[in-house]
Amino acid sequence: MSDGVHWIGVTAQYRRRLQVLSFAGPGAVAVFAMIPALMIAFGAPAPAFPGIPVAIAIVVLAGAAQIVAVILLRRLDRRRLGTDGHDFLFDSGNGKIEQYPFAALLTGDQRQLLAGKRLIPLYAPLGALFDVDELHRYIFARMTPSSRIGPFALFREALFQGNRQILLPMSICLAVVILLLLQQIWY
How far apart are CA 135 and CA 142, in angstroms? Predict the structure, then answer.
């Protein structure tokens, strides 16, 4: 509790899982990088291993993706939710606090919150981001009953609010479908 605000930070269990992932991921990439490097170092003939350049490119891309993922996961680690008793507060990890009235929050299955245009995950692939009991006590208890909608309705509302996390993939999928249809028409 600071300045009358109760903050809910990322759980210690999630932080441990995040640390394991941030060490295990680059370690696995390094192990896989050793295979083509050893093939080249011991002078494997080029015709025997024609896919070495492709393997090296895949390892380099996987390493770069892992570095980006670790950076993004570390920012996710600094996220926090809070309340001052009247409004919902959200810090996305960059220190800028966003404030929303509880009447404006929506949840589909209590795994995500829609606050304005922002879709806030409460669960991630590694497990619960925030303490579930504190979420129920400080956030969900202050939300109106009408803010609990189904998952499809939450998706629809996020789409209508202009959520970039949903609009971008939907736009890409729509463009791919249109291109595939045009390809079928032209050929």
Answer: 10
Strands (E), the chain: 6-9, 80-83, 87-91, 97-101, 105-107, 112-115, 118-121, 123-124, 127-128
The candidate with the shortest Cα–Cα distance to 75, out of 30, 121, 133, is 121
Q: Do 58 and 44 reside in the same domain of the chain? A: yes
Task: Read off the amino acid at residue 109.
Answer: D
Residue 113 CA to residue 109 CA, distance in Å, equals: 9
Which of 21, 53, 77 delimits the end of a domain? 77
Which DSSP symbol is given to 78? T
Structure tokens at 161: 């609010």
Compute φ and ψ for 64, nearest 5 degrees.
Answer: -65, -40
For residues 64 and 28, what is the distance between their CA atoms, to the nearest angstrom?
13
Is 178 within the bounds of a domain?
no
Choose the final residue of a domain: 52, 77, 102. Answer: 77
* The two structure tokens encoding residue 182: 């045009």
Judge residue 6's burial from the number of C-beta atoms within 10 Å of its C-beta, 0-12 exposed, 13-18 middle, 19 or more buried: middle
Task: Tell me the pLDDT tens digit for each residue of 6-64.
Answer: 899 888 888 788 777 777 776 777 677 677 667 666 766 655 556 667 667 777 777 78
